[in-house]
Amino acid sequence: MEMTSVRLSEASRCTVTTGKSELLSRPLGQDGMTVCFPIRLRRVHGHIPVEDARRVRDMRHLVRARLCLCDLDDMADDVELIVSELITNAIQHSHGTRVTMTFRLVSEVLRLTVRDDTRRRPRIQRPRDEAENGRGLFLVRQIAEQHWGSWGISPDGTITWCALPIRRR
Fold this sequence. Notes:
Elements: E1 4-8, E2 14-18, E3 21-24, E4 26-27, E5 32-38, H1 50-69, H2 76-93, E6 98-106, E7 109-115, H3 136-146, E8 150-153, E9 159-165
Antiparallel strand pairs: 1-2, 2-3, 4-5, 5-6, 6-7, 7-9, 8-9
Helix pairs in contact: 1-2, 2-3
């Protein structure tokens, strides 16, 4: 079993180690980071390679570590779920070879953006009860609304974002 480890340095630089590969995030001042990672080019509805699927876990761990560093541990569960859904959608539906996630704390708002190379606007699905997928954006919307936040998609469809007011203990 491969382990993911996250190291946070004083300069707000995070190193994510996932067995064989290492990703380095770029700090955005003290209150943000951007992580860009490659994904394999896939055919429509093709199988997601294991190394791409692991990126979802890596980004969840990275965001949790960053939230803990910013003393926002109480937001971690919901933010992890949002990151999981946005990164999964980007990997699953992208027709490109990279995904970029940005995490920013601005004016007491946590803003997450995920960019891929797909120029098709994602939409909230209405899956059947027995369906195993299709609920990702629905969950993102529900969590955002529950926290008096918002979410959206850029006009060209390449960015999906979520903004949540920061809850301090």
